[in-house]
Amino acid sequence: MRKKAERRPRVVPLAEGDRIPRSVRLRLRWLRRRRKTGVLLHWTMRTGYRAVTLKWSIVSVELGGTTLGSLGSPQFCDSRFIGLPPGSHDLGLRVIRGRRSRGTYCEQTVDLAPGDIFLALCEPVQPDVFYRKSPVEDTWQLRLVTSDEGAGVSAHDVKD
């Protein structure tokens, strides 16, 4: 559920031709071979190793008010797989900020069949980054990768 100070982020379906980070592609291939069902959460932080920032963000996935998994190290681009049973799930996608900034929250309904993986890529706002311009608002790119697809990874529209 959205808190008072939170606003809605920008949510974009991840099209088939869009670029997925290599580490996510490899992990997705590994999960599909083992026929896992769940959510693969990834975030991109644009901070270099020498430029640690106090304007950190924590990215999390929630189900029914309970946090299933979160990512928050300012040093790494990280991903995490969260196993879920097949069925319909109302997931909450949240970005929490430090230092008096507002976070963002949106809800996404996902219908998972056995072997389906919901891919959620997040790029939070980073106001202190000067190179490779940071997005103006938190951006989530979402894709449902189904188990009945061939060797390639294709996109399906996600429901709001």
Could you explain how this protein is built, in words?
The protein has 160 residues and is mostly beta strands. It is built from one helix and nine strands, in the order βαββββββββ. The protein has one helix spanning 22-33; strands at residues 10-13, 38-43, 57-63, 66-71, 78-83, 87-97, 104-112, 117-123, 139-145. The protein has a five-stranded mixed beta sheet with strand order 1-9-8-2-5, with helices on one face. A hairpin with a 2-residue loop joins strand 3 (57-63) and strand 4 (66-71). The protein is globular, with a radius of gyration of 15 Å. The two termini are 15 Å apart. Mean pLDDT is 77; it is low at 150-160.
Structural key phrases:
1 helix; 8% helix; five-stranded mixed beta sheet; single chain; mainly beta; 160 residues; four-stranded antiparallel beta sheet; 9 strands; globular
